Amino acid sequence: MKAVSVQTSSKEYPVLIGEKIIHELPLFLHNEFPQLTKLMIITDENIGKLYLQDLLEVLSDFESSHIIVPNGENAKTFEVYHECLTFALKQQLDRKSLILAFGGGAVGDLSGFVAATYMRGIPFIQIPTTILAHDSAVGGKVAINHELGKNMVGAFYQPEAVFYDLEYLHTLPEREKRSGFAEVIKHALIHDLSFYEELKEKVKTIEDIQARLIQPFLARGIEIKANIVGEDEKETGKRAFLNFGHTLGHAVEAEMGYGGWSHGEAIIVGMRYAIQLSKKYNKFAFNDEEFTNWLITLGYETEIPAEIPAEKLLLRMKQDKKTIGSSITFVLLEAIGNPMMMKIDDEALMMELERFVKKG
Ligand SMILES: NC(=O)c1ccc[n+]([C@@H]2O[C@H](COP(=O)([O-])OP(=O)(O)OC[C@H]3O[C@@H](n4cnc5c(N)ncnc54)[C@H](O)[C@@H]3O)[C@@H](O)[C@H]2O)c1
Ligand SMILES: O=C(O)C(=O)C[C@@H](O)[C@H](O)[C@H](O)COP(=O)(O)O
Ligand SMILES: [Zn+2]
């Protein structure tokens, strides 16, 4: 088992990573929450079928209820958020109750937002089940989507702990492995050249993204994220680096209809775009061709579907949370491991966007 401590100004908590570590949860609850009244598990249809029964057995000492929400981005809606609050009220959760977010990033973001707002905040624990969730379960960004923008309604609200049991990863479909690995690549690009080189060396095909092999990469990604969030919990400065690739990525997700492209698929294209901007406006020396070929071998889309007009993406990017006034601010790289922020004007962005839209 590996443990990473996240130390933010609002809360310190452990991220426990390893196979079968879910069995440590009851003791943690007994020790840390001696007055615990009820548990409410929020999970989705897939995880509900695969693992809910096991989790209920692990938690048999506790009074618990569960709600099953739709899979994927369909969980991050106002309707589902409202249903969760209604369920919590009907179950009479109180301020000594605790929510368990059991699933991928969508369940984690939704459940965290429910926990942050129910009775003005009750504790929650993340039990991530995807590769991507090495990112989403850590750092306390919780949110639901609005049709006008991704994660537009949310909070910074840290979990009490993250129990990352890697056994769950064995059932992940290939597409979800790929999606999650995109955030691992992001962590390497913004923070650590040798980590990036190691990823290229060890992950040559999608089959290499397996639970056992990926464990140290997930732990490394979590350490990188924990360090950044520890310094800047509420994104007043360097936390924005974790948004590398997301300005265009979120625009693509929204424009494709949430869930049309997965989060990781969209930020791969977003990172390629930010890399091009970095080369052009920030003297970033980078072998883009080699990077793109690696992504293609791993099965990623590297271009934006032709049916999405560049103008619409530009408008979406203007609603990015890093935009101040009407200036779109990008996370660019000076070198691998050396990110910075830069405002880029619309004309330059449009010019570069045209290159990323798939030619019919
Ligand atoms: N809060 C943050 O800091 C942060 C960071 C990154 C991403 N996110 C958000 O996370 C979401 C994406 O997360 P995700 O990729 O984990 O997606 P997800 O939660 O939508 O899960 C993806 C799919 O995989 C299925 N699944 C999950 N675990 C499984 C398992 N072990 N076996 C089989 N199937 C499984 C789910 O049911 C779903 O259909 C996006 O909404 C994104 O915006 C948040
Ligand atoms: O934790 C962060 O900070 C991130 O930016 C991590 C991102 O991978 C994640 O997708 C996050 O939800 C994006 O945040 P947003 O503020 O752009 O919605
Ligand atoms: Zn992300």
From TrEMBL:
Catalytic activity line of the entry: 7-phospho-2-dehydro-3-deoxy-D-arabino-heptonate = 3-dehydroquinate + phosphate
Cofactor(s) needed: Co(2+); Zn(2+); NAD(+)
Top-level EC class as recorded in UniProt: lyase
Amino acids binding Zn(2+): 183, 246, 263
UniProt main location, coarse: cytoplasm
Compartmental location: Cytoplasm
Matching PANTHER family: 3-DEHYDROQUINATE SYNTHASE (PTHR43622), 3-DEHYDROQUINATE SYNTHASE, CHLOROPLASTIC (PTHR43622:SF7)
Annotated GO MF terms: 3-dehydroquinate synthase activity
Domain 3-dehydroquinate synthase N-terminal residue range list: 67-178
Entry keyword Membrane: no
Protein name: 3-dehydroquinate synthase
Boundaries of every 3-dehydroquinate synthase C-terminal domain copy: 180-323
